[in-house]
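Q: Convert this sequence to structure tokens.
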Amino acid sequence: PVLRLLEAQLQDQRREHEEEMEALRNQLDLMQEELENQQQAFLQTLQLSPEVQVELGLQQEITRLTNENLDLKELLEKLEKNEKKLKKQLKIYMKKVQDFEASQTIVPVEGRPRERNMQVAVQRKEKDFQGMLEYYKEDEPLLIRNLIT
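A:
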């Protein structure tokens, strides 16, 4: 049983190796054919007059630059789409920040006395304290109670 299993594995590996070799041979044949075509085109170009060689060279350069421009246009479109997406995200985050800042300025009633007490404490530490205090009218009883205690 083990020997048969090993033989089967060996045959599978041999088959895979042969398939890989065939694919590589096909690839090599295609590359050789392409190389021959390029060599023939090069030899034909050398046989042409210098003016025609220059013209062909210019045509090839124009083709290369056109392809490069198309690639750059495609990249530019992708970047513009990405920019729009990022701008939308920025607007959303700015709105969230504004909402958060607005929610921080509207402090719940329970939080106000502590803030006022902190402001009072800070004002007391300052040397130019003038004895004036800003507070909400509804916080007056709580402020008085805190001052007494």
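The radius of gyration is 41 Å.
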